[in-house]
Amino acid sequence: MAMIDPTDMGLEDSQEPYAVEGGEEHKLRIVEVKEGTDKNNLAYLMPRLEIEGEPFAKDFTHFLHIPSKDMNDKQLNRVRYNYKAFCECFGIDMSRPHDPKDEWPGHTGFAILGLAENEQYGEQNFVKKLITPA
Fold first, then answer.
1. Contact (Cβ atoms closer than 8 angstroms) between residue 33 and residue 103
2. 99: helix, coil or strand?
């Protein structure tokens, strides 16, 4: 790597990212989606969300299990409902197969956010309630 000159980077204009107040509605944008498997070997998606209009706000993630035949009826219903609500909130087409990692980034939706203290990362936002079309 070539020599870097920090004096040309505008570092003095930076500020520490923050979490916004909880209980308020915000427009969110999906930045990326990661896939994984939890400790029970159930597949999940982890969309990373940013708050539009808040350039210094921290990004945060939202956990979504993928419905599976390995779930009991109650869990399966909850997971299906959460997945459907997320897709409705962000305008994701559920009428056809989709690849969340490739197709979801860039979609926007509204949610009421919560605020919690995280031992490792400090204050963090989370989705308290997704706003879905009526």
1. no
2. coil
Is residue 65 a contact partner of residue 42, using CB atoms and an 8 Å limit? yes
Question: How many other β-carbons are positioned within 10 Å of the β-carbon of residue 30?
Answer: 21
- Long-range pairs for 48-51 at CB < 8 Å and ≥24 separation? 49/127, 51/20, 51/26, 51/27, 51/113, 51/125
At 123, give phi and psi (nearest 5°): -65, 135
Conformational region of residue 10, where left means phi above 0, alpha means psi within -120 to 50, and beta covers everything else: left
Q: One digit per residue, pLDDT tens: the chain, 134 residues?
A: 688 888 888 888 889 999 999 999 999 999 999 999 999 999 999 999 999 999 999 999 999 999 999 999 999 999 999 999 999 999 999 999 999 999 999 999 999 999 999 899 899 999 999 999 87
Q: What CA–CA distances, in Å, run from 98 to 19, 24, 79, 95, 102?
A: 31, 30, 17, 9, 8
Phi and psi torsions of 102, nearest 5°:
-95, -35
